[in-house]
């Protein structure tokens, strides 16, 4: 009886993972875009092959705050980082070819990975958490590349007004 209970509990614990794995990657990216659209703020750390680093504090309701050094086309790459999976107004299937990369642990948390290739050949490799929020992304676009780490979601101090 204990064995049956332990197996049942293990299967119930793994059910969300199995459900995510069986899901359509296009639907998963739509969920990421929807979840990201509800974020109040997020901090992104963008790292470039040149060694340049850009720290971006982003909120949909305010201009992005960017601290950067030595980045040539940061606006284009900022667009990729602040619109993971593309703009919410477009259909994922019209914009990307999407494949699932499966599951792994990243920074101690389980994540699901997706590779998105747009019509220009730009590639986004996106890792998202169980809440469908981006944790990490690698972008290769227009001869540039960057790694993005997402964190400090909904930290109210980023865009607080000074008194």
SSE order and pairing:
Elements: H1 2-22, H2 25-37, E1 42-47, E2 53-59, E3 62-68, H3 74-82, H4 92-95, E4 96-106, E5 109-118, E6 123-128, E7 134-141, E8 144-151
Antiparallel strand pairs: 1-2, 1-8, 2-3, 4-5, 5-6, 6-7, 7-8
Structure in words:
The protein is α+β, with helices and mostly antiparallel strands and 163 residues long. The chain has a single domain (24-151), classed as Lipoprotein localisation LolA/LolB/LppX (outer membrane lipoprotein receptor (LolB), chain A). The protein is built from 4 helices and 8 strands; from the N terminus they run H-H-E-E-E-H-H-E-E-E-E-E. The longest helix is centred in the N-terminal third of the chain and has 21 residues, at 2-22.
